[in-house]
Amino acid sequence: MKIELFGKDYNVSDSLKAITEKKCAKLDKYFNDDDDAVAKFVVTLEGGTYTTVMTVVYRSQTYRAEASSNSPFDNIDEVIPRLLGQIRKQKDIWGKTKKGSENVYEEEDA
User: Can you say whether residue 26 is alpha, beta or left, with left for phi > 0 and alpha for psi between -120 and 50 degrees?
Assistant: First the structure.
């Protein structure tokens, strides 16, 4: 998984990058170590409040979570579990089989 960090009106520190990469390791088990998955973090500083938006794009699916607080490190702790919940829910939906019996059609003799 590729991780991209951007800052709007904020310079992303090396410590924030390191912590983000460490915490994103939890997401690797859902994406089977594919390079197709891209996680984008946008950290915005506005009036003393940090807003973090995390977007994960994997094949045709897009997952997005957002958090705001006084610390960008606290935002990382909020955003990743929200995203994990979305991914788990989607995987559960895909894994379920349809209820009911299969349609069986008899062949007609012509």
Answer: alpha
Q: What is the pTM of this model?
A: 0.77
CA proximity to 62, closest of 54, 74, 70: 54
CA 26-16-51 angle, 5° bins: 90
Q: Where are the domains of the chain?
A: 2-95
Measured CA to CA, the distance from residue 31 to residue 33 in angstroms comes to 6
Name the CATH code of domain 2-95 (choices 2.30.110.10, 3.10.100.10, 3.10.129.10, 3.30.160.100).
Answer: 3.30.160.100
Closest CA to 87 of 66, 57, 108, 67: 57
Between residues 58 and 110, the one the model is more confident about = 58
